[in-house]
Amino acid sequence: MPLVVGEAAPAFELPGAGGETITLTGLRGRKVILYFYPKDDTSGCTLEAQGFNALGEAFAAAETVVVGVSPDSVKSHDKFRAKYGLTFPLASDERKAMLEAYGVWVQKSMYGKTYMGVERTTILIDRDGRIAQVWPKVKVPGHAEAVLEAARALA
Prior knowledge:
single chain, 155 residues, alpha/beta, Glutaredoxin, two-stranded antiparallel ribbon, 28% strand
């Protein structure tokens, strides 16, 4: 079921890199960017993470928290963050419950084979925990900048 702008974002509680626990309730009162990506340390996912990381101070100035979410393990996230100096949290959804709740765990196909995977998607959540904007099927170049502009425009 697709997410609808204006509706409450699905609640979640996930382990994060560095041993933290990341929850939607814990982020309430701040604007939140949830960006869902398929796999740590792959070319597109690395470029996307670096894009968000490079704009870290601008997101902070816009009172917006960035959280990356993938089905990779916390151990994988820890390595990914260390390798690229990522300063924002990465949440691990190995059970895929949050990925399913947000509608990003989908059937994909490549070279004639179908499989389940993460559809690269970004969600902007307002200070009250409501969906403010959804970017489905994200193309990485220029994406972090577009998300930053939307976060700045959101009260």
